[in-house]
């Protein structure tokens, strides 16, 4: 478990389903991550996939809790997406973040991602990490920039243009 000033990051639990389904079924939240909402069964499968990554690799996406309310408001962490985008992307750990709409614009994504990235470097080694962002998602580019990510190429992913970014070890 990781604590920041306002957030708690922890591995997923079975009772995170309702919260995960709420943000993953909100069109405003998924607009820049494929644009497709998840039904409850798909949200359950995603939760199991997140938990399985922790089991296989000892790291993965954390569930993000707002300390003040105790609400689970998103997911953030580093994982292996194996997206078939080439060895320059697929071989590196990928950072990702997605937060409920009510958490947008509050600096939570940067706060949580910075904590997850620091924990990952300390426990897994500081190494090259990657992420991919929809070219229209300005807020995610700001988060990535704060974390030290720089664009290195654009490509197509599932029929949409994405920008690939990397962060080199310190």
TrEMBL record:
InterPro entries: Acyl_CoA_acyltransferase, GNAT_dom, N-acetyltransferase. It comes from the Bacteria. Its EC number is 2.3.-.-. One of its GO terms (molecular function) is acyltransferase activity. It is an enzyme of class 2 (transferase). Residues 7-170 form the N-acetyltransferase domain. Pfam families: Acetyltransf_3. Keywords: Acyltransferase, Transferase. This is GNAT family N-acetyltransferase. The lineage of its organism: Bacteria, Pseudomonadati, Pseudomonadota, Alphaproteobacteria, Hyphomicrobiales.
